[in-house]
Amino acid sequence: MTRTATPSAADGSFDKAESPGVGAGRPGFLWAAPAAVFFALFAIVPLIMVAVLSFARWDGLSSPEFAGLDNWQLLFDDPVMIKSLWLSVLLTVLGVLVQTPLSILLGVWAAGHQRNRAVLSAIYFVPMLLSVAAVSVLWRAVLDPNFGVPAQATWLFGDGNLFGTQAGAIGVLVFVSTWQFTPLHTLIYQGAARAVPQVLYQAAQIDGAGTVRQFFHITLPQLRNSIITSMILMVVGGLTTFDTVLILTQGGPGSDTTISAYYMYQKAFKSFDYGSASAIALLLVLVSTLISLIVVRLSGYDKMRSTMEGL
Questions:
Q1: Would you kindly state where each structural domain of the chain is located, as residue ranges?
Q2: Nearest to 300 by CA among 228, 221, 242, 200
Q3: Among 59, 123, 188, 226, which residue's Cβ finds the most Cβ atoms within 10 Å?
Q4: pTM of structure
């Protein structure tokens, strides 16, 4: 017989319901087993294989040969590799600096109740539906120096060849990445902004705070967790960008946009040096993880205990 919860006469609390055969503890490991197996097969095992290959010589055809630390030594003695790391960090930093404020403003706006907001938001989120390759091909055609927009507006773009200089090529990469991925981060901030308790804004209005003060003193602090999450996604995505560079600049002009992920591709599929390519891949994983941990630690995100944003 099952005894239902009854209120206690002393404090009004309820006794626990007792049901035979029903446990009240956390789910067992078997519930997580499918996800753990999937993660191990498609993440951990490939990562271990890449780590092993980083200490071997392999051209993709013959049997791998142990090379010790040769691949790593050549990696750090390679000026193109060192340059590619700095370029990867530069593109990542520029992406964070451009996309973060833009995403926050658009997300907060999209969380409101303005007229036609839903329609405009839906149109703005269209780039999220397109693949990176499709977006890169689209903008490569639009910005083509021979028949694209720059060629028709030389008064604004000079000779029209945005891909002919390092500054122009990096600017194109940052712009295209911003155009495609800002909607994703906007969606994060839109959801977070809608979760902010309205009572905070009502209290601020009573105290005479305007829209700008409410944004900086209520909205931004409440979006703290979301900002950190968004920045980590930007960092990891920026350091592993590949498709955009492959289609838009091919690492040019020269090696001025040869970021580490693209250099890894060149080593593996053009030079058939899979050992060095594996070392670059492992280095990118380590750098991305390290930067993410630093962001989490410095921001105090790992100490957040509240279920409410920023508290």
A1: 49-303
A2: 228
A3: 226
A4: 0.84
